[in-house]
Amino acid sequence: MNKLLFIINPISGAAKGKTIGKYIEEQLQQMPYTYTIWLTEHEGHGVTLAQQGVAQQYDIIVAVGGDGTVNEVAQGILNSNVPLGIIPLGSGNGLARHLKIPLNAKDALSTILSARSIIAIDTATLNGKPFFCTAGVGFDAEISYQFASMPGRGILNYIKATLSYFIDATPQTYSIESTNGTTSLNAYMVTIANAAQFGNDVYIAPQADIRDGLLDLIAIRTFSKWKVISIFTKILLRRINHSKHVCCLQESSFTINNLEQQGSSIRVHRDGEPETTTLPIQVEILPASLQVVTGR
Ligand SMILES: Nc1ncnc2c1ncn2[C@@H]1O[C@H](COP(=O)(O)OP(=O)(O)OP(=O)(O)O)[C@@H](O)[C@H]1O
């Protein structure tokens, strides 16, 4: 495990990505590792850089950035058997938090260098495109759109985007199909979780296990808006799965339709990054398809 590739997103973590390369170099100079640092130059670049890293037979490929960067680098190494390392720099860091990877760069780097715990985790796809932490339609997808259109990044912008969109949020009717039958419901959002949280310890699927070969679907049904504080408190206390306003399902795949927008395109997010896709939304688990260096 001595040939390391670091793929850094220089704009991640409110531009912490601009200085982290120098720090990694300082730490590794005196150590017996061969390392390379590549910077992403645009959206999607992390995927191609990681694929090049696999072809060049690096022992560990490290994503240095937020969940968007982790998503791209993980896509590039999916099914390759090259382990993914994570140095979390984002504002949410959902996958790193789920895998107990230290949130500070020094300890995250030590975890990677020791490579004591490398595990195979499940990954998932939404209409064929990979995600690793969460994906969703409805409220969480709209927040990812609002956030992406704001100048700058960071947790404060997430809070602003959430508060400003909450006023206008309306529930939609969805049908959710799985091998267990079809459920129809009126919901503010339908989230599909591979890991338990969105990031920032916001636990949308506290029961989700990233190694169980199953996806957890959480639909937040219609509720009076004055109950929002109680719903949000349950999310923070990791008890949202016990709310009567929530429908929780566990399956290896789901087909989700928005019955108010059938046949058209719809906004979704994958790991917090917004995109449009076509209905129906097909989500599937890919069991044990990514090796990751964890902090456990
Ligand atoms: N050089 C670059 N210039 C502009 N965008 C980039 C560049 N490199 C990568 N990106 C894009 O930046 C986006 C955000 O990255 P990422 O999620 O890692 O950081 P973050 O926004 O700080 O973290 P979080 O999502 O936790 O807030 C990703 O969609 C990625 O494709």
From TrEMBL:
Protein name as annotated: Diacylglycerol kinase family lipid kinase
NCBIfam families named among the record's database cross-references: YegS/Rv2252/BmrU family lipid kinase
Keyword annotations: ATP-binding, Kinase, Lipid biosynthesis, Lipid metabolism, Magnesium, Metal-binding, Nucleotide-binding, Phospholipid biosynthesis, Phospholipid metabolism, Transferase
Species per Swiss-Prot/TrEMBL record: Algivirga pacifica
One Pfam assignment: DAGK_cat
InterPro entries, sorted: ATP-NAD_kinase_N, Diacylglycerol/lipid_kinase, Diacylglycerol_kinase_cat_dom, Lipid_Phosphate_FormReg, NAD/diacylglycerol_kinase_sf, YegS/DAGK_C
Cofactor: Mg(2+)
Domain of life: Bacteria
Record has Signal as a keyword: no
GO-annotated molecular function: kinase activity
UniProt domain DAGKc: residue ranges: 1-130
Keyword Kinase: yes
